[in-house]
Write a structure and sequence with these properties.
glycosyltransferase activity, globular, alpha/beta, single chain, Rossmann fold, 426 residues, 2 domains, seven-stranded parallel β-sheet
Length: 426
């Protein structure tokens, strides 16, 4: 069948979930990708996905338009229909026009959209075009905001997050019910979102998955007393977790083993994060597109995230590399791992308990190796894209109105459109 695949960014190995879902679906289906283009450097990512797409349309949304959208959303914040800023940012009439054009041009059978950012666009298509829609929520966005609200102390930030939380809950409650199939990243988020969605909707768990052929260990387990923190350092939750770890937990580890080193892996760190390297035992590196060497060299991988919704992929990638992981109980529950069998878990707020979990692995290489092996086995059985591919294809073939679709590999002709940065026929 022919699938219109809509994301708020260009899928790539950096955006793991959308990239691998697109890749998995392309084995049986023809994919037409449409994404807004706000940062021009995303054009470089097209080469990562062009072999999996029949057509690629990137629609320019200028920063001026995006900021204007946000300003309008702020000024209308008292309105019942006011959008969260993350959704308002992406609004574009040209984007909607392009989506409708691609539906006609590529003879689309089903629409797939990812993340709350594009829900307004999906609902416009629902009203105007009679096609089944699959929406991938990834996680329960309002729950993530609720966690951030609980952790924030600054009164103005707290007020802003509370306002965004109320708007996000309204969107989840009222706007998702129109879609034929909802996808979600975990059973925990399914239950949370299920309590919010206004009417009963089909919701299937397709968990965070890892390319286990790519993420595989080539060297023996490290015994160098080295820790690695691997995260999206542009995300506030990741920076908050890192600073908490370095200020409150790492000193406890150093009390027993002062030779322990920490490698922070991530791009665009804040000046506060950069200042951590004043201690020579802490290094900061941007692994670029390949983080595997850093994960392979580490004795223990750290995931002390205070917000469970963020960086779950990073934890799974470390597990797939057979690197033993110490995370929080919230993250372990979200991943459905068993602490003590697949990884170790302790609340990051309990600094002593978290430090002791790390030290137990540094002091016992046999335990670290065993935990690393069992962690990888968990990923192979429950979180590899091979295990998810069959489920995804079953979901698509059982959508209402899909039975008539012919499995065809007759690619449509290349067309040039003036409002897109890229359209390609592969």
């Amino acid at each position: 069948m022919r699938i219109l695949f809509i994301t708020p960014y260009v899928p790539s190995p950096i955006r793991v979930r959308s990239f691998h879902i697109l890749k998995a679906l392309s084995h049986e289906h023809e994919i037409s990708l449409v994404s807004p283009l706000i940062e021009q450097d995303q054009l470089e990512l097209v080469k990562e996905i062009e072999n999996y797409c029949t057509s690629i349309d990137l629609v320019t949304v200028s920063k001026r338009l995006a900021y204007t959208n946000c300003l309008r959303a702020l000024l209308s914040s008292l309105s019942r229909k006011s959008l969260p800023l993350e959704l308002a940012y992406y609004q574009s009439d040209t984007f909607i026009h392009c989506l409708k054009e691609v539906v006609r041009r590529q003879k689309i059978d089903v629409i797939h959209g990812e993340l709350l950012n594009i829900v307004p666009a999906l609902n416009t298509l629902h009203k105007d075009i009679a096609l089944p829609i699959v929406y991938d929520a990834v996680d329960c966005a309002s729950w993530s905001l609720q966690q951030k609200l609980e952790k924030t102390r600054h009164p103005l930030k707290k007020l802003y997050i509370y306002s965004e939380l109320q708007k996000t809950r309204r969107v989840e409650r009222d706007e998702l019910q129109n879609f034929d199939q909802l996808l979600i990243g975990s059973a925990t988020d399914r239950d949370r979102l299920g309590q919010i969605v206004a009417h009963s909707a089909a919701m299937a768990v397709v968990g965070n998955q890892v390319d286990t052929d790519y993420f595989t260990r080539r060297l023996p387990h490290s015994t160098t007393n080295s820790l690695v923190f691997y995260a999206d350092l542009e995300a506030e939750a990741a920076t908050q977790a890192l600073l908490h770890f370095c200020h409150l937990i790492l000193p406890l580890v150093w009390q027993e083993k002062p030779e322990v080193t920490l490698t922070i892996v991530g791009s665009k760190p804040s000046t506060t994060v950069q200042a951590l390297t004043a201690d020579p035992r802490i290094t900061l590196t941007d692994a670029g597109s390949d983080v595997r060497p850093q994960l392979e060299k580490a004795t223990v991988a750290l995931a002390p995230f205070l917000v469970a919704a963020d960086n779950k992929f990073k934890i799974l990638e470390a597990l797939a590399m057979s690197t033993p992981v110490v995370t929080t109980i919230r993250c372990s529950q979200a991943l459905q791992t068993i602490p003590g069998q697949h990884l170790l878990a302790a609340e990051a707020a309990e600094a002593q308990a978290y430090a002791e979990a790390i030290l137990s692995l540094l002091n016992n290489p046999a335990l670290a190796r065993k935990l690393g092996q069992q962690g990888r086995q968990f990923v192979l059985e429950h979180a590899s894209w091979n295990s998810a591919s069959t489920r995804l294809n079953h979901i698509y073939h059982t959508l209402p109105g899909i039975a008539h679709c012919q499995e065809s590999k007759t690619f449509l002709s290349f067309l040039q459109s003036p409002h897109t940065e890229q359209i390609r026929k592969v």
